[in-house]
Amino acid sequence: MIKRAWIVLCGLMLGQRCWKWWQVWRFFDKPIPAMQHEPATTLVSLLQPILSGDPHLATCLRANLNAPSSYKREWLWLIDDDDQVAQHLCYELQAEYADQTIRIISLPAPAERVNPKTFKLITGLQQAQGQIICVLDDDTSLPAYGLEQCLPWLDQADIGLAFGLPYYRSFDNAWSSLVALFVNSNSLLTYVPYSQVSEPFTINGMFYAMRREVLEQLHGFAGLEHILADDFAVAQRVKQAGLRLQQTSMRHAIRTTVTNAQRYRSLIQRWFIFPRESLLRHLNLRERSLMFCLAIVPTLFPLVLTIVTVLRPSQRQRWFAASYTLLGLISFIQIDQHYLEQATPRRYWLLVPCLELLIPVQLIQALLAPQRIVWRGHVMDVEKGGAFRFVKRRDEG
């Protein structure tokens, strides 16, 4: 009985790996809707909460300013009063790109239990003048004509928010490379297949777009300040209003420097703790089941497969393990080369199977770990349901 169940599980896991790859192919074959508004007369406000600390910050900000677009754009850079490094950089870039509309908004530290990013977005929305509001993280770079791939979806019936797909370009050191490999090998194969069988229940908060009138009808970002997972909070507000979340084919690059093993572990743990304490506690049974079948089980399976192959070796078991691993590697290479701008250097390709064994261990650790995380230099305790409290702020040393 156990042997038969194991054979069935192996068959299902091999099938889901093929199915997910096929769904990615189908997704990028779908056409982008025709534009209903003239881009040259449509002002897009891009709200960017900015915090210094990463050596790639200037590179990312410049990349967005240099990215061509047919839309009129204004950049609202939301920075902290006491962040002198960010202040200097932003004013320097504002002078360098005098032909672009850049507004620098300096803000005090948020109150206790107030999400720093949401706090900035509330102020940024009040001063934004565009018909379309975009939220863009400071480590995220839009591709050339990326807005043209995303914004036309907002004209479709019942779509309240459109968002993109992230991938990483950070391969400066071993720890940054591990994070980049994790995202590049999982992002499309996680988000895209789910969006093909169910309405998305959350978004990628690195970049998303909404029409201003829709956002104002939903009371903007007000009332979401006390929720740490701001992207999930925004997504839930949109869905509760009866509007849809649209996963678009726009891919945006991210550059984040991870300097050592402790920061790598902290980052991965944060990514797993966020959904554990906020997302999973608000999903219905169907959404939880889909997440379990399409994300959690496939993540844990490579580790289980390796353990079984080592403890109960057989020619058939070794053949299956090799086939499953090879299929994963080939699908990763094809996706990276065709859909992620060949972001991953070839010397890292063979690390993908190794990472498939490391990530399950970190997932289990995060599921058992306390709710404390480090986010942008802030130490926080994440509470059940998604609220939080500061344990130590970034500027407290």
From TrEMBL:
Compartment(s) of residence: Membrane
Record's keyword terms, sorted:
Glycosyltransferase, Membrane, Transferase, Transmembrane, Transmembrane helix
Quick check: keyword Membrane in the entry? yes
How does the protein's chain sit in the membrane according to the entry? Multi-pass membrane protein
InterPro entries per the record? Ceramide_glucosylTrfase, Nucleotide-diphossugar_trans
Which domain of life does the UniProt lineage start with? Bacteria
- Is this entry keyworded Glycosyltransferase? yes
> A single Pfam family, by name?
Glyco_transf_21
Pathways per UniProt: Lipid metabolism; sphingolipid metabolism; Sphingolipid metabolism
Q: What is its main location?
A: membrane
Where does the chain cross the membrane?
Answer: 289-311, 318-335, 347-368
Report the PANTHER family cross-referenced here.
CERAMIDE GLUCOSYLTRANSFERASE
What is the protein named? Ceramide glucosyltransferase
Q: Which organism is it from?
A: Herpetosiphon gulosus
